[in-house]
Amino acid sequence: MVDETPLMRQYTEIKKDYQDSILFFRLGDFYEMFYEDAKIASKELGLTLTKRNKKMDVPLAGIPYHSASSYIAKLVNKGYKVAICEQVEDPKEVKGIVKREVIRVITPGTIIDTDYLDEKNNNYLMGILIKDKSIGISYVDITTGEFKTSKLEGKNLLYKLLGEINKVYPKEILIDEKSLNFLQGELQSNRILEKINITKVQTMRNPEKYLLEYFEIQSLDSFGIKNNDDIISVCAMVLKYVVDLQKGNELPIRKISYVSTEKIMELNLTTQRNLDIVENYNRNDSGTLLGVLDFCKNSMGSRYLKRILKNPTLDIDEIHRRQNDIEYFINEVLVREEVREKLKDIYDIERIIGKLTLETVNGRDLVALKESIKNILEIYKVLIKNNSNILDLDVEKLIDVYNLIDKVIIDEPPFSIREGGIIKPGYNEELDELRNIAEHGQDYLLKIETEEREKTGIKGLKIKYNKVFGYFIEITKANIDLVPDYYIRKQTLVNAERYIVPELKEYEDKILNAKNRISTLEYYLFKEIVGEIKNYIEMLQELSNKIAYLDVISNFAYIAIKNNYVKPEIVQEGEIEILGGRHPIVEKLIPAGEFVKNKVLLNENKDFIILTGPNMSGKSTYMKQIALIIIMAHIGSYVPADYAKISLVDKIFTRIGASDDLITGQSTFMLEMSEVANILNSATNRSFIILDEIGRGTSTFDGISIASAITEYIHDNIKAKTIFATHYHELTELGERLKRAANFRIEVQEKDNKIKFLREIVQGGADKSYGIEVARLAGLPKEILVNSKKILNILEERKDIIEQNFGVEQMMLFGNTPTLEIKKEEKKEKVETISEEEKRALSILREIDINNFTPMEALLKINELKKILN
């Protein structure tokens, strides 16, 4: 199989160590791929598949090296690893095979070419390490140097982990074999992992030592992770993976940032999806809270906004700081607009820093950095002039970096740093001389020719050139007597002699090699200036954070004015009161002014709302808008309301909708109960819970029973602020019986046997369902609606007879349904139609003590009843 040429032997030897990667093997101006790599590249990149050696049948595919980035990006985005094998010797100076080495391996989580990354999204590589009672996670973006870690503890760790994965949304996950075995089923079935590459790696034996040596520090105290074995292990696992793939190239990672989950609002996977916080089911920001809020002027701001939206802070001082800064920009309209206009001209400094460290930066990047520094200094002047200390800069260091670049790099440099044309004239004497030679070489030769004619008196002396001798002086035979002694004869012709002189040969060397020497010297000078700028990297990283913050804060002020938001009052604990609240997303999807405002008050006296009303009436919109307003308040933003007072909420839970999960194979009811179980096991008295139509995945009586048990459990045990929406109007009895519960309903206007949803939330419970009217609004055929009403009348009649004969308190858990006036004979006849199984089920129901019934017991009892009735 192997082509036994020296080159192919070299290829085979290198490929042995990179069996899991596509090897880009550098041959001159091309990267070549052989064997299976060539077949894959041909298929995925649309390349022509040829053969290197027809005898040995070696498949071959190649691409020009200067356009390799786009090809690499395509392969990596499809989940492949790419190993870059370069020539590490100059072919001109080597006899035989040029030495080649893999200089970098690129995976989905370690892409360094930012031209092929989404500028508004980080490209994260994430590590997961599962222990008995905790999970350590860490994630890094090597294009920006961001390296964060946190520890998940407590109940329902799997739900928490999936929530964190969805927040970070890494392109690649590293996981050790033990953890992978534990998570295998979930990783395969969960939809958030469809486009995430899973890589199995080994944990390290001495992770703390590895981290100390990499960061060159004495203790991990400065990162806040000392003695935290889970965190240390997962951080070392991720860092080593990146370092190994970069093959010794410097990384922009300067520190590890520990993120305490105690200071971040918990938003699990279901909540993130149900509330459409940063992306919809098509994985874009259309129709999301992010889409409403992101009018940032640069990519650093957009990335920062996405991070804080996924991680609302519980630090009340930080929230107040953001609010105060937003208020400044609301009051100072002209300042805000000037700042936002200049922010638009600031480039992605965060990723330029990454390029500086990874040594992929070019002249245009440095000019972009220079222009960005100029603009941020102008913003600083504007803010200082208008009595604002929002932006704190190290002005002297920024001016130093600006001057470094301005002194060396031309204003419009070429893309490549290898071909010259980057360095300004006057910066380096040798470079100026070489450029002068390259540009005016012929003029100088004419000058030498003139000088030699004057020295020798030979008027016919000429300077000529050929490939054998290079530049030489040609003198006719008639003038040979005038040739000076220092002329060196090189060739005799019939009518002339050819000579060389030291000055001419010295200049010849300069002329012929000027172009190569210029590009080499410019590359050296460019690397020198990059090295000097690297001394300012920590300052520049802080600068990028400050610019991102400024962009988001001024953006929030702009959004608050544009969308008529108000500043919420934030308190440590207490009530949630919203007057004139609006759904920030929905109000943008309907004509201006048509959204119906609503209020809510949840406090220690009333923290549980039972919201009744038909489907399509606006219950879900109302509940979601409260959750979104809470999230907006926790990121420091103003909110869509006339007034808002928000106490800190540690977790938001949602259970909305009831569609079968076909991918995981879970039924509607099982999925619903799994999510409810997670809520009941995780919520605290500082949480906010949305429950929408719990129990509708099973029969009506089962559903009402479960809904009742869940309601009482949350009310009596968890005491979280909760809104429970239901179309079971029978549940309104709970709002009257439970101490801290209250009934609210969606106002419905009935006229001429038709209904109209007014979308207004009013106190009191609904006393009937409007299912058939909803069906009419949905467009079902008239004959179906008529038949539905007939069937409904029969069912209601039968239900009433059962209640009268067996006790309404045993059959209906809540509500007082009006009875029908039916003759005794009809009652008897109807009762006799009840089966033995139904009688047995009713007997079991009589024995249940609802007040001492846990959710799990309810589920088991329901399962028992279903078996009897089936």
Describe the structure.
By secondary structure, the protein is of the alpha/beta class. The protein folds into five domains: about 5-105, MutS, DNA mismatch repair protein, domain I, CATH 3.40.1170; about 120-270, MutS, connector domain (Nucleotidyltransferase, domain 5), CATH 3.30.420.110; about 290-420 and about 535-565, Orthogonal Bundle (MutS, DNA mismatch repair protein, Chain A, domain 3), CATH 1.10.1420; about 430-530, Orthogonal Bundle (MutS, DNA mismatch repair protein, Chain A, domain 3); about 595-635 and about 650-780, Rossmann fold, CATH 3.40.50.300. About 45% of the residues lie in helices and about 20% in strands. It is built from 28 helices and 27 strands. A seven-stranded mixed β-sheet has the order 13-23-24-25-21-26-27, sandwiched between helices. The chain has a six-stranded mixed β-sheet with strand order 3-4-2-1-5-6, with helices on both faces. Strands 11-10-7-8-9-12 form a six-stranded mixed β-sheet, sandwiched between helices. α5 links the parallel β10 and β11 (about 195-200). α12 crosses α18 (about 535-565) and α21 (about 700-720) packs antiparallel against α28 (about 855-870). The longest helix has about 35 residues, at about 500-535. The protein is elongated and about 135 Å long. The model is unreliable at about 660-665 and about 805-830 (pLDDT under 50).
